[in-house]
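Limitations

Structures in this collection are predictions, not experimental determinations, and the ligand pose is part of the prediction. Treat each record accordingly. The example that follows, with S-adenosylmethionine as the small molecule, is included so readers can see exactly what is and is not provided: the inputs are given verbatim, and the output is the predicted complex.
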Amino acid sequence: MNMDPGILRLLGKTVSLMENMGFLWLVFSGFELRLWEQLQEEKTMDGLLADNPKWDAVLLEHWLNQAVFQDLLILDRDTYRLSSLGKSVLRYQDLGLEAMYKEFVLYWGTCFRQLPDLMTGREECPSLENELKDNLISRASRSSEVFVWPVLQKKCARENWRRILDVGCGEGTYLKKLLAVFPELTGVGLEINPATCVRAEQGIEKFHDRLRIVCQDIFDFNNEEAFDCCLLNNNIYYFTGSKRLELIRHLKGLLKPGGQIAILTALRGITSSVPILPAHIPQNLMSFFLACHQGFDGLPAEQEIMKLLQEAGFKKIEVRPLLFKVSHYFFAIKP
Ligand SMILES: C[S@@+](CC[C@H](N)C(=O)[O-])C[C@H]1O[C@@H](n2cnc3c(N)ncnc32)[C@H](O)[C@@H]1O
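Predicted complex:
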């Protein structure tokens, strides 16, 4: 019997959907229960139950089995240990992974469940939930650090920046890393969210007066001394349509002549040239999720950023796709 190729592809998609959902729930629950830490040392199921006497044995057994099937654990006779993938989960936990998975489990499902009502206008788009605003989004944003940091570090060295403004600095990690590497550099981190500012301020004492975190809306911020560089990392999508041009013009006003703007953003609509990592799928899905919320239009397209920079009067626009095109940096100069 000839199988309809459409049905075969659908079957493949459905199986990989279940595999991916399983992976998500497994990693998420492992973070919540601190199972990844507990499995750093080899453990038997009985050993785990002895450490966690109130846990349900049947569910724990399913969790462990699923983690083996998903290549997160290795089972050797009756002991479980982390595979290299499992070790990476633990290593990237605080580099955005835990926050990102929490965001997916707690908020993406609820959001997309409402899609028929949102698309037909039966329900209004909700505001972004507080936990997302105060905590998860800026922490999850750290997941792109491994791709972004090498580009930013090289650029800073080449351009010899001395004064940097980081708009929507989130946890402030880029500024802290830059200031640690470049002793001449001073920076201001601007962040609208007070809870996020508190985290950005952690550990800045060692930079003395070289680093300042300001808790303010960018549109209320004016500085006496102009900057060599203004970073707008993973922040432009917080602004809708015409506000984006207003923002870029405002940032231009904060730069010295010859100063640079650096816009880092995931993009809508691009296609990846790397088949092993179709990065345009998650980027467009993130855009979709954002667009389901009040005050958000989703991610910009590459052409939109180019147009904004040109209209604001920036010159020498350079587009730098990051590794696997997971995101893009746009650099441009104020004449
Ligand atoms: C996705 S996070 C990015 C954090 C960091 N730049 C990074 O790339 O890891 C965006 C941050 O921009 C902040 N933000 C949004 N609108 C802002 C505004 N009008 N002024 C200053 N900060 C803003 C948010 O509170 C959030 O912490």
